[in-house]
Each structure stands twice: as structure tokens, then as C-alpha cells.
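Figure 2 data, in text form.
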Amino acid sequence: MNSTDKKWQRLAAAARQAPEERDSTAPYGFAARVAARAQAAAPEAGLPLERLAFRALGVACLLAVLGVLLNLNPAAQPAAAPEDWFFMTEDPAAILLELT
């Protein structure tokens, strides 16, 4: 072994014995700084997606209102069969339990 290898071995042995004292948490405000730098680097990167999202939100709202309006129209609802009226007014479970 040459002298460089001996020095390296001594340095590696000393490093293995050194105590672990470093802090593993991010500094205060680190996430905010990273987000601010990302926003400053590409300020208009999200604009097309945002426009598309707002249009999709508008279309979804219109479809929801249309669905409510169509279901509120009494002419659009099918007429109930006579046997369905019986089950709408009386509790079938209670009737069956009274028979036993």
C-alpha cells in the first residue's frame, strides 16, 4: 500500500466514527421559495390548461342545470303503473309482516 491509500484508509475510518449531527429538515420557507422560482421561470405555462379547465367547468355546469330542468318537467316523466302507486303509498315490508 502506498501512502495515499493509507491516508485514504485513515480518513475513511475517521469518517465512519464521526457522529451524525446534521439536520435533515428543509429550512423554513423552502417550499415557498421553490414554488416562487418555478412560477417566475414559466409564468404562462399553465394558461392553456387553465382556460380549458374553466371551459370544461362551464360546460359541466350547463349540463347539470339542463339535467335538473329536464327532470323537473312533469311531461318528461313517464306515468306510473297502477301497481307502482301501491308501492309508493304503502310499505310492502309492513304489509308482509302483518300477514304473518
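Caption note: The two ends are 99 Å apart (CA to CA).
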